[in-house]
Amino acid sequence: MTDYGSNRRQPNSRGVLRICAATQSRPPTLELSGIGFSFGGAPILSGVNLIVAQGERRVILGPNGAGKTTLFNVVCGDYSPRAGSIRFLGRDITDLKQHMRARIGIARTYQNSLLFDGLTVLDNIFLAIRGIKRGRFSLLRPRANDSDLARAREIADRVRIRHQLDTDVRDLSHGQRRQLELGMALAAEPKLLMLDEPAAGLSPGDRPELLRTLHELPRSLTLVVVEHDMDIALPIADIVTVMKDGAIVVERTPDKVERDPTVQAIYLGEAA
Amino acid sequence: MSAVESSSQKFSGRSFALPSLVTAALLITLVALPAVLPEFWTVNIFVRAMIFGIVALSLTFLAHYGGFISLVQMVPAGVAGYTIAVTVPDAIPANSFQLPYALSVTLALAFSTLAGLTIGAVAVRTREIYLLMITLAIAVSFYFFVQANVEFLNGYEGIRNVMGPDILGAPLRTPAIFYYAVLAVSVALYALVIYVSRAPLGLVLQGIRDNPRRVSALGFNAALHRIVAFGLAGFVAGIGGVLLTFYNIGISPGTVSTHATISILIIAVIGGLGHPIGAFIGAFIFTVFDTFAADIYDRDRFNTLIGAVFLTIVVASPDGIIGLMKRGKTLLARDRSSVSRSRPTIAP
């Protein structure tokens, strides 16, 4: 059951109405139609329809096994959907390879940080910048004044790990790994940023920092976030999508989602 | 020094280059060797070790930076060697190509690079044990191919009398010239591998080694990078193959046999797969054992001897001789610090 259309007409303090007005003239950043995916014979996603407007902040909630991360993997090209289509800024990318999706502006983070442990923080961010540019096969070492290196340092500043530039990634703390994970996704100058549980495993002290970083992201960036922590999820969300058993069951504005009986049933049990 | 300057100097990656003092001392020693050692040592031990070291370096490059342990590196070396042998004028049996050495060497390296790229493309979807198996299969196939091809490659007899070009007016086979030429090429290739490891291509390879999925998610075509890495390794191995053909004054299927293929892996593992210099150290140990097996125990027991060394290294230090040296250094440092801690101090 989705009622995205009715929600779009209900403005909230975070500008959903503005997004909807913009949607009429511009293609949505992400448009999923009837996405289905299964591992072996077991269906993981079935008939997922999702429209995320340009500049929108979308949070996806759902219990473990709801298919949230699989949905991310399908959108980013880790997996090919068994059914349905994916459109990005109006372009059909269903059959586009994973690295090409990154080059056209889709970046993501992972639930368990996937970093290059044998390289330094600077190297990791540099690679994230170079991944969408020319010179990916270069045999020439970048000069000290290379613009990509300068940008890598800026990114490190933005995610507050500037002091760790020369540290091997394997020596970073969990919180620093999460910051680097976010920095690498931002480094690719994405149009669509997908964050898979950015607060997972963070200490209470690290969470306000993460929230601050997310609030500082430019409004032109479309954000899709999977997050369990409501204190992180709701303040950044324009619209909250709730998934269960591989399907979207509710789409609401953040102020209404907590009171939604279906959501309460999912999180607190059927008797709630 | 500011953080920016500091980080720019350290950029990028872990090259595993030797410290500059050690490098300088090693280079001076190697340059001075012909003055203090007899020709037997410089040519039969050091030149041979450096040539095998170059081929093993191509494996170390793939294994350490990309995580690809390949058993195929004697194939691009063999492709280069056979290309030289069938195109130079003085080879026996004579051939109809008759190219000058400069062109022949260029062609040989182009073909070895192409062989590397092709092998990389064939093996692009395999990792670990499957990569080992597919590369071993290619190596064995190549051996049987060159043995069976009589028309161009002269079958199991191979091609001989490949004397090598003249360098600065003197024949390459002049011991001192051969030694310094091979030394210069070895140093250049070692430097190339270290340099590339810090360039974007090298960093991406290390990224593929650590996390191939993330590499693709960042916009890199991981498969294409793998293929290019095999091409570069083919180029390096090809140079080893050219030098090996000059060293042996020809080439025969034995040069690219399964035994030779396994020997390259043994060399790289003994030296340490995690360190480019390990290829040369392993090759030196291998060559010394190969040469002096008869004096140590029995000529026919070389495989037993090198096998025992190999097993000892693998059990004692999976990171080869370099790993042993590093561990020794760490233990020494620990001992020193514990001695200084236990020393009585006088209270102020």
Which key terms come to mind for this protein?
heterodimer, A: 272 residues, alpha/beta, Rossmann fold, 2 domains, 6-stranded mixed β-sheet, 4-stranded antiparallel β-sheet, globular, disordered N terminus, B: 348 residues, mainly alpha, two-stranded antiparallel ribbon, two-stranded antiparallel sheet, 14 helices
Give, in spatial order, the strands making up the sheet with the most strands of chain B.
1-4
Order of helices and strands of chain A: HHEEEHEEHEHHHEHEHEEHH
**Low-pLDDT regions of chain A:** 1-22
The radius of gyration of chain A is 19 Å
Quick structural summary:
Chain A is an alpha/beta fold and 272 residues long.
Describe the structure.
The complex is a heterodimer of chains A (272) and B (348). Chain A is an alpha/beta fold. Helices cover 35% and strands 22% of the residues of chain A. In chain A, the strands form 2 sheets. A 6-stranded mixed beta sheet of chain A has the order 6-7-8-3-9-10, sandwiched between helices. In chain A, strands 2-1-4-5 form a 4-stranded antiparallel beta sheet, covered by helices on one side. In chain A, a hairpin with a 2-residue loop joins β9 (239-244) and β10. The two termini of chain A are 19 Å apart. Chain B has one domain (34-280). Chain B has helices at residues 3-10, 20-36, 39-66, 74-87, 101-122, 128-148, 175-198, 200-210, 212-217, 222-247, 258-271, 276-296, 302-316, 320-342, and strands at 159-160, 166-167, 170-171, 250-251. A two-stranded antiparallel sheet of chain B has the order 1-4. A two-stranded antiparallel ribbon of chain B has the order 2-3. In chain B, α3 packs across α12, α7 crosses α8 and α11 (258-271) crosses α12. The longest helix of chain B is centred in the first third of the chain and has 28 residues, at 39-66. Chain B is globular, with a radius of gyration of 22 Å. Chain B starts with a helix and ends in a 6-residue tail after the last helix. The chains are: A alpha/beta (272), B mainly alpha (348). Chains A and B meet through α4 and α5 of A and α1, α7, α8, α9 and α10 of B.
